[in-house]
Write a structure and sequence with these properties.
single chain; alpha/beta; Rossmann fold; Arc Repressor Mutant, subunit A
């Protein structure tokens, strides 16, 4: 049984340096580990970074996922149930030659580290580990590889809607919109993840923090407040996906 430190990075909105792909879309990370609980923890931690995550539990599925998902980085366990992680890495290098790979394994002998790195791995973390360490290592790999860059500008833009994270000014089609502090944080979270469906639980965690004692209907309430200010008299940008959550995307005109 491998113990993973349970602390999950919980940076406040605006309080971290955000990494994005060159086209502005979220970073994609493929996690390959046959320990379901561990993979779920990693997935949760990486999603809190705003990244897209796909998990697989064996080598064959991982190689198929890599071709379909086209990740910007891979977290790869060496000890997989079907194909050795080193063989998976070899295949990844044929299909995605530049993708950085972070080995995650219980093997901590020096010769195991050397084998992983000489096989083409970019970094190596042994179990047990902290989630913060894995996230930090991945951020470093992504920046060095050029797969992701720091978003330095303060302006978020989705369609004709703009939000300035520094001045807290919001406008749509050039017309200023006044928001309360909570409405602003909710809109910022939606705009940082355009076209991505965010669940009520995700929104509660990010906007109201983990220790919020209310119910999920507070999300519905504030979404309705935003709609009155953002979408009133205009083509809608904020959408509900029943049973899944909410998303924001450019208005469809015509």
């Amino acid at each position: 049984m491998v113990f993973v430190m349970p602390a999950i990075p919980t940076p406040a909105p605006g309080g971290r340096t955000e990494l994005l792909r060159p086209d502005g879309s979220p970073v994609r990370v493929l996690v390959v580990d046959d320990e379901t609980a561990l993979a779920d923890l990693l997935s949760m931690a990486l999603k809190y970074e705003g990244w897209e995550v796909r998990t697989e539990s064996d080598g064959a599925a991982a190689m198929r996922a890599a071709r379909d998902f086209k990740p910007d980085a891979v977290v790869l366990d060496i000890m997989l149930p079907d194909v050795d992680g080193l063989e998976v890495l070899s295949q990844l290098r044929r299909d995605l030659s530049d993708v950085p790979v972070l080995f995650l394994t219980a093997k901590d002998a020096v010769e195991d580290r050397i084998a992983g790195l000489t096989a083409g791995g970019d970094d190596y973390v042994t179990k047990p580990f902290s989630l913060e360490e894995v996230v930090a290592r991945l951020r470093g790999l992504l920046r060095r590889s050029g797969a992701a860059a720091v978003r330095t500008e303060s302006l978020l833009v989705v369609g004709d809607l703009t939000l300035d994270e520094d001045s807290h000014e919001v406008s749509r089609d050039g017309k200023s919109i006044h928001l309360t502090a909570t409405e602003f944080e909710l809109l910022r979270y939606l705009m940082r993840n355009p076209r991505r469906v965010l669940s009520k639980a995700q929104i509660l965690d990010r906007v109201w923090s983990y220790d919020f004692g209310g119910q999920a209907n507070v999300v519905e309430l504030y979404i309705s407040y935003l709609r009155r200010k953002i979408d009133a008299g205009r083509a809608p940008m904020i959408h509900t996906r029943r049973g899944a959550g909410y998303l924001i995307k450019p208005a469809e005109v015509g």
